[in-house]
């Protein structure tokens, strides 16, 4: 399976394969913010990356909406997904902010706790055995695992501040194997459409010379790592003015 550079992937008409029906039902039922066309593009990327025989990585589990898609692709290839989240919610999910969901607050501690919802989503989809959930902050987890290439896919969908997005990029992208896929969610070139931190790390990857463009669907961007230094991209998308 291959993506043409700058191709649009993941719509119902162009997706190379759909998730199993029970996985798609779980995706639709789970709390989360990923539109279905972007989810199908993520599943297509995960299916391709899983063929490398390496684990897949997700940064930002939330309640498991995207995790089930990654896990379904991993299961089919005989590998697993490692999903990293502290489960206390990102900045915009805290009380008083736009994406706060008070049903996700643990009354015992008065803070958000999305871990039970992730586990419920994985159980409903029958995918618990194909996911390794790492509960902790992304930079700490990245430091524990170390820099060796170990993942066939790195999906960046964590905190959307520059501090958090940059830490995710610097901590995890070195662990992406040659030929693997880097997927960044919520890439908005126009600041009026959303925060710019994911856009900036996507442009950083493009400018590095280590990646070629592999696809886009909505705010989802897919890049393929080359097999050596500067083995990838030939054009850098223009910066948003």
TrEMBL record:
User: From start to end residue, where is composition biased (Low complexity)?
Assistant: 7-16
* Keywords annotated in UniProt: Methyltransferase, Transferase
Region annotation (Disordered) maps to 1-21, 221-241
GO biological-process terms attached to the record: methylation
| GO terms assigned for molecular function | methyltransferase activity
Q: Does the keyword Lyase apply?
A: no
Tell me which domain of life the UniProt entry assigns to the organism this sequence originates from: Bacteria
* UniProt cross-references to Pfam families, sorted A to Z: Methyltransf_24
Name the UniProt record assigns to this protein: Class I SAM-dependent methyltransferase
From what organism does this protein derive? Streptomyces bohaiensis
């Amino acid at each position: 399976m291959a993506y043409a550079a700058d191709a649009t992937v993941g719509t119902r008409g162009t997706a190379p394969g759909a998730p199993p029906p029970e996985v798609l039902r779980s995706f639709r039922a789970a709390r989360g913010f990923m539109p279905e066309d972007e989810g199908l593009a993520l599943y297509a990327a995960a299916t391709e990356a899983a063929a490398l025989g390496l684990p897949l990585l997700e940064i930002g589990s939330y309640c498991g909406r995207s995790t089930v898609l990654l896990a379904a692709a991993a299961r089919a290839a005989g590998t697993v997904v490692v999903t990293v989240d502290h489960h206390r919610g990102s900045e915009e999910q805290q009380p008083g902010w736009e994406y706060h969901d008070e049903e996700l607050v643990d009354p015992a501690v008065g803070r958000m706790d999305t871990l039970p919802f992730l586990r419920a989503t994985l159980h409903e989809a029958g995918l618990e055995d194909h996911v390794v959930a790492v509960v902790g902050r992304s930079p700490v987890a990245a430091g524990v695992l170390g820099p060796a290439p170990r993942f066939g896919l790195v999906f960046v969908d964590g905190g959307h501040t520059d501090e958090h997005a940059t830490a995710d990029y610097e901590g995890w992208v070195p662990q992406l194997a040659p030929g693997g896929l880097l997927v960044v969610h919520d890439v908005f070139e126009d600041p009026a459409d959303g925060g710019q931190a994911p856009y900036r790390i996507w442009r950083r990857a493009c400018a590095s010379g280590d990646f070629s463009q592999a696809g886009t669907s909505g705010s989802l961007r897919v890049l393929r790592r080359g097999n050596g230094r500067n083995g990838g991209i030939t054009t850098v998308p223009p910066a948003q003015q």
